[in-house]
Amino acid sequence: MTSSSASFISLLLVSSFLLGSHLSLTSAQATPPLVAGLSYDFHATNCPSLETTIREYLREIFSSDFGVAAGLLRVHFHDCFVQGCDGSVLLAGSASGPGEQAAPPNLTLRPRAFVIINELRNRIHRACGAIVSCADITALCARDAVFLTGGPDYRVPLGRRDGLTFATRDATIANLPFFGSRVPTLISDFARKNLDVTDLVALSGGHSIGRSNCVSFVGRLYPTRDPTLETNFANNLTRVCPTNTSPGLTALDVRTPIYSTINTLST
Ligand code: HEM
User: Fold this and answer.
1) Is the beta carbon of 125 within 6 A of some atom in ligand 1?
2) Does the annotation count 78 as an active-site position?
3) What is the value of pTM for the model shown?
4) Residues that bind substrate, according to the entry (predicted)?
5) 171 is in which domain, residue-wise?
6) What is the phi/psi pair of residue 266, to 5°?
7) Are 156 and 123 members of one domain?
8) Which of 16, 22, 38, 67 could connect to 157 by a Cys-Cys bridge, CB 3.0–4.6 Å?
9) Helix (H, G, I), strand (E, B) or coil at 44
């Protein structure tokens, strides 16, 4: 099992929140096997305040910016699919080239999510020393983003090591699923990460929270509207994005009650 798939199995517990009551949770709730080197109590002795620090800090942040929870969840996904869950998406570029954040699929990640992860790293390293990886902090942020937006709580195995290098632009593009892909392509994209169709469906439920920029879907509205789009849905999207270069934003899932009432569209 790769480290990216192992980390994502924890995230599958998100499915009760993502898919509502329509999916049996039996398989998703089974305790996944741990990757060698990871354990639930990895920081129990050397940083016992780790998980409380993250949860309480995020609780405070989300009280004024609920939307950034979605940003944190997405950062973990974009970290894990490129080189595994190694924190490489957090790295700034270097003389060797721009970092992963400069690659097109990452341009719509929320800048504030990175600021929050950095602030948590500073707080945790002040309290415990530089012994907790940014990859672990990112995974815990994703878990707490799910929990604090009304999803299930789940345990996250810890002990990831941060990567020292980031992926190139081409490798980043090649590893992150393209937003215009059809289902067969997404199935094979996930299979390359050792994730199956059930994983794809459950994890796609990550879109129960968050937002999309017009740029991610105007290709289905212009120059010709995709005839398979439901008419009212397409009309609403056209109002949000009246041209193919509109800068608008829309909620990804307008029917998720918690999100439609508390949605914030901040950066
Ligand atoms: C199946 C392949 C996937 C594709 C093609 C995809 C694509 C996208 C796109 C195009 C957006 C909108 C970006 C924008 O325009 O701002 C988005 C947002 C989002 N995605 Fe995915 N995604 C995928 C899987 C996932 C997974 C596995 C997760 C996490 C479990 C996830 C979590 C999110 C979240 C939370 C947002 C909202 C971010 C925000 O509000 O800042 N996505 N995704």
Assistant:
1) no
2) yes
3) 0.91
4) 177
5) 3-209
6) -80, 170
7) yes
8) 38
9) coil
